[in-house]
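ok so i was messing around last nite and threw this chain in just to see what happens. nothing serious, just curious
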Amino acid sequence: MRFVSAGVILALVGAAAPTLAANDQGKAIFAERCVLCHQEDAHGAAGVAPSLVGTLAPNLGSSEGKRYLSQILVSGMIGPIVTEGHKFSGLMPPFRADLSDGEIAAVINYVLGTYNGVADATATSPIAPADVAAASAGNPVATDTRKLRESIGVPR
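result:
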């Protein structure tokens, strides 16, 4: 039987602390801003808001996909979409006026880590505040986000 020293355990806990703190920021923003529509378990509400569970990680494979994830919170989205076979025609509100680039990155990464199995769920990775700033640069509007979704072929 092998024993792990207390020093090793404390080092491992200390290494995880920044990730946990970043998750706490994203978790708090999610609880304050997102659960009303997407629900506490992020499974969404029929006809109101799509599930965020297991649906977002594929977008991390391209710069356009990362821009899409950021732009959803920057400008919101309006217009019909189909996700996991369910149709939605509501409005995702924009949060750019209320949240900083870092806060937007933190909540996206919280959702990616908690509900999409992305291993690194800190406030700055895999979506960095710079990704959010880039998504904001063109001053997109809600219809632009839906068009971007269609152009990159977000899985339906």
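not much to say yet. The domain at 6-151 is CATH 1.10.760.10 (Cytochrome Bc1 Complex; Chain D, domain 2).
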